[in-house]
Specification:
The protein has about 170 residues and is an alpha+beta fold. The chain contains 5 helices and 5 strands.
Length: about 170
C-alpha cells in the first residue's frame, strides 16, 4: 500500500498506511512538532484545532477540524497551520488586529479562530463582499468556535477591522 502524501505549510509530508486512522492533530504535533494547533474537546465541537486546507492547488481554502480528521482523508491536500501565517517575521494583518484588539485572554482557542479567519480572508481576497454583509460573513466564519474566556466580540471586531483595512475585500 502506498503512503499518504500531502503537504503541511508548503512542505511535502508522507504518512504510512499504518497511520491512516491517526488524527491530523496527532500527526502535526507528534510527527512534525507543530504544536500551535490545539487539542481541546477531541470531537470537533470547540474548533480550537482548526487548520486551513486546500483540496486542490489553487482552490479556495476551507477550515478543517484537525482532531477528528484521519490522515487517510488528506491524500493530495494542502494543510496550513497557525505556524504558516506570519511570514518573514512579520505578522499577518489578522494577527496584528488580534493583538491590537486584545482578542484573546488565555489564548488557547486563538489558533482555531485565526485559521478560520484566514480561510475567510482567502475567500474575500478573490470575492469581495458588500460592506453591509460584513457582520454576517464574519459571524458565519467564526460562529461555531468556542472561547472559554468569552472573547468572542474582540475576535469578531479584530477580523472585521483587518478586512476593512485591506483594500479590495469590501466593496
Amino acid at each position: 500500500m502506498a503512503d499518504i502524501s500531502f503537504s503541511v505549510n508548503g512542505k511535502a509530508v508522507h504518512a504510512s498506511q499504518d497511520e491512516a486512522d491517526l488524527p491530523l492533530i496527532d500527526f502535526l504535533q507528534e510527527d512534525l512538532n507543530l504544536t500551535g494547533t490545539k487539542f481541546c474537546c477531541g470531537i470537533g465541537v470547540c474548533r480550537a484545532c482548526t487548520v486551513s486546507v486546500r483540496r486542490q492547488p489553487g482552490a479556495p481554502s476551507e477550515p478543517m477540524i484537525a482532531c477528528s480528521t484521519p490522515l487517510s482523508s488528506l491524500s493530495g491536500v494542502e494543510v496550513y497551520t497557525v505556524e504558516s501565517v506570519a511570514e518573514g517575521g512579520k505578522l499577518h494583518p489578522l494577527q496584528q488586529e488580534f493583538l491590537d484588539h486584545f482578542s484573546f485572554q488565555c489564548g488557547y482557542c486563538t489558533p482555531g479562530f485565526l485559521m478560520a479567519a484566514m480561510t475567510l480572508w482567502d475567500r474575500l481576497t478573490d470575492n469581495p463582499i458588500p460592506r453591509s454583509s460584513l457582520d454576517k460573513v464574519v459571524d458565519d466564519a467564526l460562529k461555531d468556535h468556542i472561547c472559554r474566556c468569552t472573547g468572542y466580540i474582540r475576535y469578531y471586531e479584530a477580523v472585521k477591522a483587518a478586512i476593512l483595512k485591506q483594500p479590495g475585500m469590501v466593496a
